Task: structure prediction
Amino acid sequence: MRLQNKINIRFLMVTLLVFTVAGVILYFTLGNVIDHNIRGILKSRKTNVILYLQHNKTDSILFGSPDRTIFIRQIAKIVDQSIVSDTMAYDVREMELIPFRKMVFTTTVANVCYEVTILQSLLESEDLQVIIFYFMTILFILIILALFFLNRWLSNKAWKPFFKSSALLKSWKIGENKQVHFDVTGISEFDQLNKTLEEMIEKMQADFINLREFTENASHEIQTPLAIIKSKVEMLLNDQTLSSKQHLQLHEVFETAIRLSRMNEALLLLSKIENKQFAEKSDISFNSLIESRLAYLEELIDLKKIKLSIDLSVPFIVSIHPMLADILLSNLLSNALRHNCSHGKIIITSGNNEIFFSNTGDPLTIDPLKIFKRFVKQSTSEASNGLGLAIAEEICKLNALSLDYTYQNHLHCFVLSKKFKN
Amino acid sequence: MKILVVEDEKMLSDVIVSYLKGEGYLTEQAGTLDLGTQKVNLYQYDCVLADIGLPDGNGFKLVAEIKKCHPGTGIIIISAKNSLEDKILGLDLGADDYLTKPFHLSELNSRIKSVLRRRKFEGQKELVAGKLRILPENRQVYVQDELISTTKKEFDLLLFFISNQGRVLTKESIAEHLWGDFADSSDTFNYVYSHIKNLRRKILEKSGVEYFRNVYGTGYVFEIGNIR
Result:
């Protein structure tokens, strides 16, 4: 829900409440005023009737007024009391039953007792209720309309800087190292927000770059100590005086150091790719690169008795850094080889703007969606560091390629395809 | 054979030097670009191992300097940076090889030998080990003057072993020597095993001598000492 709408709803609710209360108060207040008024009218008419009786001493005194609102008749005995009550009566002009206020009193003029009934129409007071209701309703609708237009105007105009900032933020990505600049809006709240955002973005960018540099430097610095460990252990492995048990343990140290250095190398490569250190691109034919990589792997493929079927007739040319192309294909090919079974198959086919790498192998035990995540690996195999596919994906991301995984007909299939910008 | 090790990390330099001494080389050390430059200007070395990231400058300068005063010296760059650009730059400047840290000492040793063979003996030299005679240029192996057929990998493997005679070669370093970056699969150890098995058989058939010794769980040693 938009903020403006939220505010409007509250506002309307309060307005409705206020209008209702005000309407009720107005109704009763006006009612009282009218009541008071009618009482005054009745009083003055009473005086008029008495005066009239005093001045017209005729027998024809018993009559009703032509508008049938005053009735006078002679009575025997005076009741010293006037009665005021509400009643319904037929109105000639309105031609319907309408409410009246009736006043009945007795008076003595020249020793004759009269009873006078005065009727006063209450139609006005009933109309009042209706008028108040309509008035309030119309006012309420007007307020809603006003709010609606105000809202539109506010959204378009007053909130403009806000939407502009929000669009800027949406387009901003960390790591792109793009400067974000917000315009001065002249509205202190927005300017304050923009200033804070600008500072925050600057800080985030600096932190991000620092962190990336740190990762790269750390991986880099680790290589030399690892070289020392490996070399020292390699020297020790040649020591004839060691027992075979010590020898084995030493070899484990050696193995672990190698694993560590491989992992470190892969991480270093990842951070280099992320740091865009492979920006120079040239057109590389993946077809010939795959063929040369496969020639290199020929023996490994033969030894595992894997059947290779390749159809690279459709050319697939990508603008990419040569080393990245090499790493990408090496990773995909060694992945197809590593997770293959003995006497399995590797099928590589090129199509229009895509290359398929399929291989036999046990189904995944991990979530296929996580296959490109770092350190996610199928086996507990020590040989795999779980970074190969992460690197492959990262390379694709930076070179307008997409890499997708499917498992169909007992084949793991990686599809490398070109992304087109519309 | 004189080798200069230019490496700022003292411990790494020391371990390389002690390994190379074991191989019978004369070695010298330099920890800075300045000292390295001085040394290559003063003396002639057969091979220089040059680190790229030196505290007082870039090792590429050293490569250029060596090329200037002693063009015949073999140069192997040892760098912590595995970058294609650096590799190309180094080789363009005249380095013979480029090795990325962390490397296996046996690999370094084999590279040094290969460089020395090419540099000092114009690749003509034949290697003799026991009853084996190897012509590295022609990629031929003779056992008691009889040519045996070897696959490319088997030849590389034999050369690697002969370059590191009497040393324990771990499965990992063999795999890395043969397959480089693809060596990270545990399958490769089976391949190492099967290559060695074939090589052993071929040599044993012709010579009747077992040169390879299995070091349990670790790797293999090529020895000719125990048959003398």
